[in-house]
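One-letter codes give the sequence; the fold follows as tokens. Both lines appear below.
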Amino acid sequence: MTTATKSMNVFMKGKAKQAAIEEILVSRRFEDEEGNPIPFKLKAVDTKRIEELQDECTVPQFKKGKKVGEEVDWKRFACRLAVETTVYPDFRDQELLGSYGLVDPCDLVKEILNVGGEYAELIQAVQRVNGFDTDFEELVEEAKN
């Protein structure tokens, strides 16, 4: 190992590269004025926010009226993560939500990407952009079915 590799300087605050915005073609149904498909823009969400989303998507489990534990609603989590990761279009935009008569950004994602393969494409891209491995992808895939 070189001295530079052992140095802690590379891990100091502000030294990490910022997550880049990636353009992903999720659907060919949305086109610009020239007829070119419009890519979605995705950016990785930080770990703290991902944990908050997991907490927000955790629901109590009951058996015979008694709480027996908690479980993450993976379908909801996958959609919430997609909303957080997608920079463009902005699924939280009030005008966009209003044009569909919706309030929940997750409902909007599913309304805009109402062809099943499009939604699956977005979820897969979101997982990849956020650095999740196959195990998580399998959980989300299982949740979608």
Summary: The radius of gyration is 19 Å. The longest helix spans residues 116-129. The beta strands are 22-24, 40-42, 58-63, 66-72, 86-88. The chain has a mean pLDDT of 88.
